[in-house]
Amino acid sequence: MAQNELSASRIEFPVLQSFSEQCLGATTTLEITRALDAILQARGIKQWYVGNLGFVNEWRGFGFDEIPPAWRKRYVEAEHARFDPVFQHALNQGGKTTWAQCKLIAEHLGDKRALQVFDEAAEYGIDSGLILPIHGLGDLPAAVSFGGEDLDLTPDAQASLYLIGALAYESLRRLVVGFKPIPPLLTERELEVLRWAAEGKSAVDTGAIMGISAFTVQDHQKSLRTKYGCAKMTQVLVLAALDGTLLIARQM
Amino acid sequence: MVHVVAGATNPNCREMLAKMFRQRCDVFIKEKGWKLKSYNGLEFDDYDTAETIYLMQFDARDNIIASMRMNPTDGPYMLADIFSSVCEAPIPRGRDVWELTRGALSRNLRKSGTWGRMQCAMLESALLWGATKATGFFTVDHIMKQMRVGLDVKPLGSPLLVDGEANVAAEFPFNTQTLERLRSSYGISGPAIEHIHLMPVPQKKVAA
Questions:
Q1: Residue A52's pLDDT band (boundaries 50, 70, 90)?
Q2: How far is A72 from chain B (nearest CA, A)?
Q3: Nearest-CA neighbor of B98 among B68, B118, B140?
Q4: Which residues contact A113 (CB under 8 A, 6 or more apart)?
Q5: A residues 77-96 near B, CB within 8 Å?
Q6: Which residues in chain B touch residue A11, judged by CB atoms under 8 angstroms apart?
Q7: Is B202 part of a structural domain of the chain?
Q8: What's the rounded Cα separation, in Å, for the pair A6 and A44?
Q9: In total, how many domains does chain B have?
Q10: B140:A180 CB<8 A
Q11: Interface subset of A 34-53, CB within 8 angstroms of B
Q12: In DSSP terms, which residues pair with B6 in a beta bridge?
């Protein structure tokens, strides 16, 4: 199959420049998604997603996409997200990469269920793409994903797409979320310790619940105090309640 | 709180500058593996001049935790000297355009909001000195972080994939609106700058 003519090259600077200006000047999300879609469709990228992963429509998540309806239906019905190496890579704080790289790892591991996702996607005309995982301070996991058929993702093309995706995500985030205090990024263990501290549990109790020593719990508490710049756990809890981190901890 | 030090050779801040050059050696050479020259564990180069303005943040024990270098672009600067080929838009230049380089933060504080205070101090310094624009060669990740806290970043060329990381020349304006957004993003209500150490003016000899 012939490669998309435009997909082999980087996105030209005037296009990047114009998109950047549109992003910064946009007053609605539709202006950004339309401009993004126009650039991507012209390069054979017919599927894209920009937004949070797994928590869409929750209290502060957001997501915008252009996904073929039939593929979306199949993806949800088959619960592909649980096995899709690209989705899981982004969810687990991986770096920027191509779908081909994720597929290679799945092949190496002999992960048939993961490979099924790639095979089925190809049936819907989506066989190549790239993913830009986004892990902001205290933010829900997010990503930008671009896919299409037989895309030739040269290093220059990848770099351009990562930049376009970054500009799109951040400008959409500005319109949806605004500029609010950015909570520190906590580890899963710290979130768990935070949750039990909010329940009034002591370090000994928390250690017993989590199956770790009270000293380790105290280490996590110290890290929480450092990250929030607080002297006491009570202050940490107040700030975590205000910035939404406690809610995330309770949802775990 | 953040200290602003004017001049790489500021005689009143030798100890602070040495701590910063040592931190840069630790972060950029030892940790990140950048191919830079060091001298007795200190990293500095031709862009550390009497015109350079530095931001430094110290902890309660006076250990340096964060630093940043800001150079007016009316003299030699890295984007024009080294990365000009990546600029497709006119290369920004002028006394009021600052190049930002060597942003360093202690490893254990990278998941905290510490850098926010540095960024606020950067904006405060720019407004104090009358700078209107920042420029530099940034990773896409860095650009995302800047946009997230309110800086209106615009690319100056197509990005390049360097060691698997997309990098691009970019610029963003310094103004009070961006400072407000930054403060709001980090929940900072007052000034981030604690001290400004200006380069001492040479004393004229008084005739006997």
A1: confident
A2: 28
A3: B68
A4: A83
A5: 95-96
A6: 158
A7: no
A8: 8
A9: 1
A10: no
A11: none
A12: B53
ipTM of the complex: 0.87
Please state, in angstroms and rounded to a whole number, the distance separating the CA atoms of residues B198 and A202.
50
- Would you call A220 an interface residue with chain B, using a CB distance cutoff of 8 Å? no
Pick among A162, A226, A239 to test the B interface (most B CBs inside 10 A): A162
Q: How far apart are CA A159 and CA B92, in angstroms?
A: 23
pTM of the entire predicted model: 0.82
Weakest-pLDDT range from A177-186, B31-40, B42-51, B175-184: A177-186
E strands, A114-205, in order: 128-134, 142-148
Residue B116's closest chain A neighbor by CA? A182
Nearest to B143 among A134, A136, A166 (CB): A166
Q: Considering only residues 5 to 34 of chain B, which have any Cβ-Cβ distance to chain A shorter than 8 Å?
A: none
Inter-residue contact B147 to A23 (CB < 8 Å): no
Q: Which residue of A has its CA nearest to B183?
A: A181
pLDDT tier for residue A197 given thresholds of 50, 70 and 90: very high
Contacts 24+ apart (CB under 8 A), A226-231: A226/B108, A226/B109, A226/B112, A227/A184, A227/A185, A227/A186, A227/A190, A227/B111, A227/B112, A228/A184, A229/B112, A229/B113
Distance from CA of A214 to the nearest CA of B (A): 22
Quote helix, strand, coil % in chain B, to nearest 5: 30, 25, 40
Give a yes or no: residue B52 inside a domain: yes
- Give the domain CATH number at B32: 3.40.630.30
B117, B147, B183, B186, best to mutate vs chain A, most A CBs in 10 Å: B147
Quote the CA–CA distance of A89 and A198 in Å, as a whole number.
31
Q: Which domain holds residue B80?
A: 2-197
Is residue B205 included in any domain, yes or no? Answer: no
**Third-level CATH fold of A188-251:** Arc Repressor Mutant, subunit A (1.10.10)
Measured in degrees and rounded to the nearest 5, phi and psi for residue A28 equal -130, 155
In chain A, what are the domain boundaries?
A: 13-176, 188-251
CATH, domain A13-176, list 3.30.450.80, 2.60.120.10, 1.10.10.10, 3.30.70.660: 3.30.450.80
